[in-house]
């Protein structure tokens, strides 16, 4: 059974002068343990879609279901990770990673110890009493991952979590996030505009077209790549073929957009 | 070898910084000393009217006299107490009001023109009304100190509240946090630097409010000493009070800066 289901979700933003449709007729279902990437040109409503799934935004059309129950507020089993770490600079790392537990009223010893274990797992146990400003960008994003995982969500929403990092750090973090999520059996949705990242990390890739955002195509990533770590997957021969395929589809979308504009 | 050269260069660099700092201090001290000695000399020589401008030596001896009979401490303590209370309450009420505006966008839109008008209005003009309403006492002086700083604090802090990065709020909301938790976990701590800097502005404003308040009603305090000195044409007393106020206001400002360095060490 699908863990997450979207039924013809649409989102329209209203302003004084216009109504802009950001998303239209998005239907998809994601099974437990799957890693799905949402790929598309900028302005295709990727982040809006993620906010809707996170329960931060109620869609103007359609519905979101988790375990067959509608979602209309932030679901305790869904964790959200933003583009930048957004660690609170006035809190220590310890207070940052236990923030979710505090807000969800789960700050029992057991859960807090769990958060510390996660911090140890990603190799940052020594930073517990430090402040975010004392950590590097990559370390901060790792702490943000721990913060998100600390409340033990079943599904993680990743909103371009590596886009603010330098390339090397990004590649390392892809491996870390991928293996951590697999190990803990998490379901994940990654929003990105990086084709390589989408292929290397996911089981499925959903391509969105823009204006309004619609599902254009869904790709299944070859089994040979799925079992590999993102960094290894990037070296594999199947990687470039898949890359080529998605690249062409994206070109397609852009052409369509262009024709729409000129017509 | 190259390391030694680097070290030497570094030492030279540090020395240059030290030298500059020392020079700044020397010039500052020079200005201070020459101001007071020029004042003294001009007064003795009669270049300025000694009745009106007094002289540092006269002020100093008056200061010693007032300090030894103890009357000075009462006046200083009185005014200082009022000012501290006025600026703490002003900042507190201002922040509370800002929180209220943040909480209710409707209220903030409704109150917007009123706040603009109130901010532009000279609050000291309300003095006479306050005195009649509250009575010619301690209360109306405090009220003046609060009134003069509360609106500007509200505006500054509310603007800071609005400028907090939405994404921090998003983090709290994604963990199911409600509006109250957003305020407590994000908005308020993120704005501590702005609140502290409005505290700095309020130090000066509250002195204005309290001194004007004392002009109008008081039988004690530095503002009273100024107005009394003016009435009996004792300008030595007026200038001494003024100098004490300058020293006190500076000390309070330093105190707030110390508080700032303690409280917001880790804000980046």
TrEMBL record, chain A:
| Protein name per UniProt | Spermidine/putrescine ABC transporter ATP-binding protein
Keywords, in A-Z order:
ATP-binding, Nucleotide-binding, Transport
Domain ABC transporter, first and last residues per copy: 4-235
The protein's matches in SUPFAM superfamilies, at most eight in alphabetical order, are given as: P-loop containing nucleoside triphosphate hydrolases
- Gene Ontology terms for molecular function: ATP binding; ATP hydrolysis activity
Q: Which residues cross the membrane?
A: none
Q: Which InterPro entries match?
A: AAA+_ATPase, ABC_transporter-like_ATP-bd, ABC_transporter-like_CS, ABC_transporter_ATP-bind, P-loop_NTPase
Q: Name one Pfam family in it.
A: ABC_tran
Q: Which organism is it from?
A: Fictibacillus arsenicus
- From which lineage does this chain's organism come? Bacteria, Bacillati, Bacillota, Bacilli, Bacillales
């Amino acid at each position: 059974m699908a863990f997450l289901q979207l039924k013809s979700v649409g989102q329209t933003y209203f302003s004084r002068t216009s109504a802009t449709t950001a998303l239209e007729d998005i239907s998809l279902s994601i099974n437990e343990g799957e890693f799905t990437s949402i790929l598309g040109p900028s302005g295709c409503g990727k982040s809006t879609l993620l906010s809707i799934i996170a329960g931060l935004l109620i869609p103007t059309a359609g519905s979101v279901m988790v375990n067959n129950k509608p979602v209309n507020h932030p679901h305790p089993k869904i964790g959200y990770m933003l583009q930048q770490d957004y660690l609170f600079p006035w809190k220590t790392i310890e207070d940052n990673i236990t923030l979710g537990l505090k807000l969800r009223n789960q700050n029992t010893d057991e859960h807090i110890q769990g958060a510390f274990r996660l911090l140890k797992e990603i190799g940052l146990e020594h930073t517990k009493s430090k402040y975010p400003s004392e950590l590097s960008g990559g370390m901060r994003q790792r702490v943000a991952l721990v913060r998100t995982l600390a409340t033990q969500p079943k599904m993680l929403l990743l909103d371009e979590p590596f886009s603010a990092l330098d390339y090397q750090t990004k590649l390392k973090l892809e491996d870390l996030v991928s293996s951590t999520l697999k190990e803990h059996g998490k379901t994940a949705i990654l929003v990105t505009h990086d084709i390589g990242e989408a292929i290397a990390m996911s089981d499925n890739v959903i391509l969105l077209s823009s204006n309004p955002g619609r599902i254009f195509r869904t790709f299944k990533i070859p089994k040979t790549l799925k079992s590999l770590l993102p960094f290894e997957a990037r070296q594999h021969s199947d990687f470039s073929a898949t890359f080529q395929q998605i690249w062409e589809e994206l070109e397609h979308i852009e052409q369509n957009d262009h024709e729409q504009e000129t017509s | 070898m190259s390391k030694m050269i680097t070290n030497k260069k570094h030492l030279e660099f540090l020395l240059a910084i030290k030298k500059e700092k020392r020079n700044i201090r020397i010039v500052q001290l020079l200005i201070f000393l020459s101001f007071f000695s020029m004042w003294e000399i001009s007064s003795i020589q009669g270049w300025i009217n000694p009745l009106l401008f007094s002289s540092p030596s006269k002020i100093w001896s008056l200061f010693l006299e007032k300090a030894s009979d103890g009357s000075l401490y009462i006046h200083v303590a009185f005014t200082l107490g009022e000012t501290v209370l006025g600026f703490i309450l002003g900042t507190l009420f201002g922040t509370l009001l800002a929180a209220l505006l943040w909480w209710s966008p409707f209220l903030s839109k409704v109150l917007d023109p009123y706040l603009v008008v109130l901010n532009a209005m000279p609050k000291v003009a309300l003095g006479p009304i306050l005195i009649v309403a509250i009575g010619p006492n301690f209360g109306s002086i405090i009220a003046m100190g609060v009134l003069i700083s509360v609106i500007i604090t509200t505006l500054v802090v509310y603007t800071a509240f609005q400028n907090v990065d939405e994404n921090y709020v998003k983090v709290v909301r994604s963990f199911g946090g409600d509006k109250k938790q957003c305020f407590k976990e994000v908005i308020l701590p993120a704005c501590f630097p702005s609140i502290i800097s409005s505290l700095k502005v309020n130090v000066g404003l509250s002195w204005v409010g309290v001194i004007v308040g004392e002009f109008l009603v008081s039988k004690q305090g530095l503002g009273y000493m100024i107005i009394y000195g003016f009435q009996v044409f004792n300008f030595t007393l007026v200038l001494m009070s003024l100098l004490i106020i300058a020293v006190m206001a500076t000390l309070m400002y330093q105190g707030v800066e110390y508080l700032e360095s303690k409280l917001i060490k880790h804000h980046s």
